[in-house]
Amino acid sequence: MTEILLLVRNRIVPGLLIVFSLYHGVISLLEERTRERIDPNPDPVRAYAESYRSLRDTLAGRGCLRVRYISDTADAPSWFEDYVWMQYALAPIVIGDSSDCRLVVVRRRGLPAGSAAGPSQGLVLIRDYDNDVSLFSEQAQ
Amino acid sequence: MIPGLSTSLLVAFLLGFLAVRLAWPAPSAGNAGRVLRGCLAVGFGLGITSCWFFWWFCLVTARTTWFGSAVIPEVLAAAALGIVWRRGWGTRRSGAAEAEYAEADGGRLTLTDWLLGGLLLAMGGCALVLFARTSLWRPNGDYDAVAVWNMRARFFALGTDHWRSAFAASPGLPHPDYPLLIPATVGRLWKYMGNEARVGPAVVGFLFTLSSLGVVSASLAILRGRRAGLVAGIVVLGMTPFVALGAAQYADVPMAFFAVSAIALAALWDTAPGDLQRGLLILAGAAAAFCAWTKNEGLLFFVLFVAVRVVCSLRGGWRSGSREAAALLAGALPVLITLAYFKLRIAAGIYYLKVGSYAGNGPMGAFLDPATTAQKLRDASRYWTIARAMAAEIFRLGGRVLGLAPLLLLYLLVANTKRQRLREVAGSVLVLALMLAGYFAVYLTTPLILSLHLETSLSRLLLQLWPGSVFVIFMLAGGRSQDRMRLQTDAAKT
């Protein structure tokens, strides 16, 4: 009886632990391959960071620490993610409701360039960027 | 880029290595001791340099943003510590402690040892491939890594002269109160590298994941024998979500590293206490404090760890308890001062605990539970929901239907756990149990919708305790030498 208990304790249960661990190690690799096939481009942040690097540099060149950000996708489910990815791309400049350099970044999905903002909102287009993003200047009062 | 990355890691490793060697000068304990000290050096080095980097921002960048003013003191500190060590201040040995450790780690390698070593290498290979593929698939990390940890690191690295903007009230900058070990570490790497290369945070995640494995395996090899260390290492890696979380660049894995380091260092002290080993307690206190500098729930771990250790040591009298507290706090103090300064002067308090902190912060409002705290506490179904979710997650963590935890518990049940072993780790068991209770209380009173909060965070919180739990269970159940001796004794009787 003692020997059976020792066999269970020293061989069988540790063996089960090892086999289970190995099994899950291999299964996780296979699941990872499947996930990559299903979604080969899961990292939108990379696209944001690369697309808006010149925008960030422009803002930094003008001494902006804080820039106003307007998005016409405020009702979209992905609005918060878009907001965070844009903040990540433009960091260390903070995006928000106000600007310290009279510049405004506007995202206008699916609309012609500059159409989501313009002189009627007191904004003058400076430049269009990729993926429906434009840089505007606030007109002097 | 690579020279900058290498230099930053080398400086951090040197600082960590020297700090660990000076605090724990005693035995080498063979290869296991070297591995343990190496892994501790990685984590402690990154922790120490993250604190220094933060203080550099607070104290120096108002006058100059020249990065050399941060690098030179680091290098000088490493050089100074190296001189102290080489002069022999860190090489005194404790004869009794060497004997204690050597007993567990001695003996020729058997076929079983080679087989287990091979299996650990195989698991390590799987984990490495999983880590690499996950990192390549999402090079910027998962959501929290982008929105919180690496976001703040970008402010440190790219906005040195206006770094406090990282804590502005903005929907795009969530959780401004989260501690800064990871952002400061990644920001420091990026400063050394001269750009915000994606390899930086991935390397940090890899180092903490690997070091967690090393601490568990090496410390168990010292305390319970080589085979216990090897099997425990295989089991740690078998929890593949833990590896994936490291690749996702979340701060839960670094916190898990510091938690298991604190527990393992305390266990080493308990096995061979003595004045020359008191540095182990200092390191344990520092490790627990680094938990708090990594994540807010790390503060809970620190308080519980120190409180339980001090209360347990009071059994030996007031003198014993006060010396234990003094050693733990001596290690923790520099980190606690850093954390306190951050919480009081930079990011006010703990965001979660501030009434209304989520309500006005953009879309977080959609995730709020309108019930008051008193209503939540009176809701019995809430207790059941949380308990059931925690039990289910523990049961299946690491697997689809059945996780590793039930097998580990089975291992514990069939083990010949002696009362002496239970006494050795009773404090650590209590700390882990109280951490679970703490998480339960957090979910009970969360301002967020309960099901959403459980779904998005429960598995990560449990994974924070995974290496520590494996360590404690193997401390209770592992160690073949006693069983072999018992078998021989029974054979002699017959």
What would you say this structure looks like, in words?
- The complex is a heterodimer of chains A (141) and B (494).
- Chain A is 47% helix and 19% strand.
- A five-stranded mixed beta sheet of chain A has the order 2-1-3-5-4, covered by helices on one side.
- By secondary structure, chain A is of the alpha/beta class.
- The radius of gyration of chain A is 26 Å and the shape is rod-shaped.
- The model of chain A has no long low-confidence stretch (mean pLDDT 81).
- Chain A is built from four helices and five strands, in the order H-H-H-E-H-E-E-E-E.
- Chain A has helices at 2-38, 44-51, 53-61, 79-90; strands at residues 66-71, 94-96, 103-107, 123-129, 133-138.
- In chain A, strand 1 (66-71), helix 4 (79-90) and strand 2 form a beta-alpha-beta unit.
- Chain B is an all-alpha fold and 494 residues long.
- Helix content of chain B is 75%, strand content 0%.
- Chain B starts with a helix and ends with a helix.
- In chain B, 50% of the residues are buried.
- Mean pLDDT of chain B is 86; it is low at 93-100 and 481-494.
Primary descriptors:
heterodimer, A: 141 residues, alpha/beta, five-stranded mixed sheet, 4 helices, 47% helix, 19% strand, rod-shaped, B: 494 residues, mainly alpha, 75% helix, globular, disordered C terminus
Molecular shape of chain B: globular
The arrangement of helices and strands of chain A along the chain is HHHEHEEEE
Percent helix of chain B? over 70%
Q: Please state the oligomeric state of the protein chains shown.
A: heterodimer
Radius of gyration of chain A: 26 Å
Name the largest protein-protein interface in this structure. A-B, 46 and 58 residues
Number of helices of chain A: 4
Could you say which structural class the secondary elements and strand pairing of chain A correspond to? alpha/beta
Largest sheet of chain A: 5 strands, mixed
> How many strand segments of chain B?
0
- H-E order of chain B: HHHHHHHHHHHHHHHHHHHHH
Structural classification of chain B: mainly alpha
- Figure out the total of helices of chain B: 21
